[in-house]
Write a structure and sequence with these properties.
The protein is α+β, with helices and mostly antiparallel strands. It has a single domain, classed as Nucleotidyltransferase, domain 5 (2-Layer Sandwich), CATH 3.30.420.10. The chain is built from five helices and six strands. Helix 2 links the parallel strand 5 and strand 6. The chain is globular, with a radius of gyration of 16 Å. The model has no long low-confidence stretch (mean pLDDT about 90).
Length: about 150
């Protein structure tokens, strides 16, 4: 998204189980530091012994040596589809579409600061995880869905 100070880049990880945003980072630059910090934060939320798949597009951020090293150290499996085939990134693209529709299109960010946008995106993601209902989850938010399945303790 673009503010009066320039672009702001968002790097999230979406859990395909329920669409929850597991971890996210924002930066003025789309670089390895942004994606590596986000990946490290996501890894810190994993239970011991977990070995989930990481679905990404073919972006350079997900092919850098530092990203691959973090993945290997955490014993994660990287899933990357062939060029011009985007199913591995569909969950993230869907989230970006909802974010744009529900947050950015209704507000004019061109006259606001990056700090204001960062605050708004953080608040949106927290609302998205905790309160925004999804029909695919039986009219529950990802948080409510996990509580209902006793995957979380209130």
């Amino acid at each position: 998204m673009v503010t009066r100070e320039g672009k702001l880049y968002l790097s999230p990880i979406i859990d395909c189980f329920d669409g929850r945003v597991v971890a996210w980072k924002m930066s003025k630059n789309p670089n390895a530091e942004l994606t590596n910090r986000m990946l490290s934060e996501a890894i810190s939320t994993l239970p011991s012994g977990a070995r989930p798949l990481s679905h990404t597009d073919r972006g350079v951020h997900y092919r850098w040596a530092s990203w691959i090293q973090i993945m290997e150290q955490a014993n994660l499996v990287h899933s990357m589809s062939r060029k011009a085939c985007s199913p591995d990134n569909a969950a993230c693209e869907g989230f970006f579409g909802r974010l744009k529709n529900e947050l950015s299109y209704e507000k004019g960010w061109a006259h606001k600061s990056k700090a204001q946008l960062m605050t708004a995106v953080d608040e949106y993601i927290r609302w998205y995880n905790q309160e925004r209902i999804k029909m695919s989850l039986g009219g529950k938010s990802p948080f409510q869905y996990r509580l209902n399945l006793r995957l979380l303790v209130g």
